[in-house]
Design brief:
With 228 residues, this protein is an alpha/beta fold. It has helices at 2-22, 41-45, 60-67, 87-93, 103-115, 142-149, 170-187, 201-206, 216-219; strands spanning 31-35, 54-57, 75-78, 96-100, 120-125, 155-161, 192-194, 211-214. The chain has an eight-stranded parallel beta sheet with strand order 7-6-5-4-3-2-1-8. Bound molecules: pyridoxal-5'-phosphate.
Amino acid sequence: MKERLRENLDRIRTHIRHICEKHHRNSQEIRLVVVTKTIPAEVVRELMALDVQDLGENRVQEAKEKIRHIKEPFCWHMIGHLQTNKVKTALEIFSTIHSVDSLKLAQAINQQAEKVGKKVDVFLEVNTSGEEAKWGLRPEEVESVLNQIESCQNIRILGLMTMAPLTDDAEWIRSTFKALHNMRLKYNSRWKLSMGMSHDYPLALEEGADILRIGSAVFEGVLETNEK
Ligand SMILES: *Cc1c(COP(=O)(O)O)cnc(C)c1O
């Protein structure tokens, strides 16, 4: 199991380096968040020895259960839709929330963060593909949300997050990443972009991604060969 994990990670990291070289980017500045949703704790723990620091989960309850069995000091990222009634628990677990998709949620996080004396790093999730079933702010909402959360002292906006559509249409995928990059240019050039998953991270890197959220490519073949 561990060997397969190591191979998968090596392959992904090498690929990231190659793409960065080709596009004159510094691969040291790219952060890989390994997405561990549905992956059992004993497999997750192996990642510490493989030099992984950042892990992503998309459900508060699943993450909470899992983390009870993980003593290694990972940095946990919330990447899925967050209901306001789960904010309190979420802030006990996660250092960064990638999925702030409404003004109401931003304000709830700010309020809870203030209560517990924290500053929380967040990304605004933007629905740049325009798919109806997707979470995320509509691009035209972003400006007013930004204005309204300016007074929120306990959240720190690190950047923008998006999810590309599940499609083989590379140009559609690329256009959703480009749209996020253009929003960064418009609002704050220092922001980071959280975009790119197993199937589309090369395109995301080409379009300016700083943080990749990769799950299935890391765990491919790992659970199947987990013989005890
Ligand atoms: C599951 C998930 C990922 C990782 O997807 P893979 O295809 O497994 O790499 C990234 N971001 C979000 C928001 C997810 O829910």
